[in-house]
Amino acid sequence: MGSGIAQVAATAGFPTLVRDVGDAVLAKGRSAISRSLDKLAEKGKLDGATRDGALTRLSFTTDLGALRSCDLVIEAVVEDLELKNALWRELDVLCPPATIFASNTSSLTIGEMASATARPDRFVGLHFFNPVPLMPLVEVIRGVTTSPETFDVAMKFARRLGKEPVVSRDRSGFIVNLLLVPYLLDAVRALERGAGSIADIDRGMQLGCGHPMGPFTLLDFVGLDTTARIAEIMFQEYREPRYAPPPLLRRMVTAGMHGRKTGRGFYDYATDPPTPLDPGL
Ligand code: CAA
User: Fold this and answer.
1) Is the pLDDT of residue 281 over 70?
2) Which domains does the chain carry?
3) Candidates 1, 30, 36, 39: which one to mutate for ligand 1, based on the most atoms within 8 Å of Cβ?
4) What is the per-residue pLDDT across 146-197, written as a single tens digit (0 to 9) for each?
5) 129: Cβ below 6 Å to ligand 1?
6) CA distance 73 to 179
7) For residues 203 and 214, is the Cβ–Cβ distance under 8 A?
8) pTM of the full structure
9) Which residue, by CA, sits nearest to atom 43 of ligand 1?
């Protein structure tokens, strides 16, 4: 998601610095941005000058210290509170007091991260949706300590990116995942119970409800590992069975079937179109 967020920021005219842990991941992000910008330009959704401008506004680094020059830092690391907070503590020392911190977390709370820093008033949630360049929504999350000024900057920033912000309370899952995650988990439970095949459940929700992707295609798209992690965090927060990751999802994650990114999930992506996999029920 980090590359998508960087892409929309640079396209909107912001000089954008992308920081990641290694050169190989940075190179992967850079080429994903380039491909995406080319695709949007090919389809006439972006003119050539805007695409070229976005590319010139982007820079890439592995040096965390380089972020000290930024007015806004948006974090998009995996959903692991310890990892995120270790990063925030380092950034809190490196960045000037005026720098605003924003997390793209999908299931942790802003309060849990804001309290790890000495700037809880300049901490806010900016939750984007995949694929970031195409999805118009950003959830803006006001933590209990977020100042009105910080919140205002976050709303204006989301609009400057051409996104439509919705305001969410600081509760795990915010608005969209609060509803989307139980739906995705229910699809896995429906499969476990033999309600229908992967392909038919997907087609059912696409054709019967007008969803652009069926739940298994979406699970593969978001990542089974990511979904299981989000579900686990939401289950910890609410202790409601609807958020508990079903056994099949856990088994697939353990087996390395994480969806599109590993080539296998509910579908096998070695074929075109992808073939539904028998998850061994
Ligand atoms: N940049 C540029 N172009 C892109 C792109 C990207 N990142 N990703 C896809 N495209 C292109 C495709 O390549 C395709 O191009 P062609 O028409 O030339 O083939 C075009 O966009 C449209 O793609 P599709 O033909 O697949 O058409 P689509 O109408 O299905 O649109 C979609 C794709 C927008 C992804 C749509 O399927 C969709 O909305 N899916 C649901 C996505 C969703 O629910 N996202 C939220 C996930 S939850 C989340 O992100 C939050 C969380 O915390 C878990």
Assistant:
1) no
2) 2-169 (3.40.50.720), 176-276 (1.10.1040.10)
3) 39
4) 999 999 999 999 999 999 999 999 999 999 999 999 999 999 999 999 999 9
5) yes
6) 28
7) yes
8) 0.96
9) 130
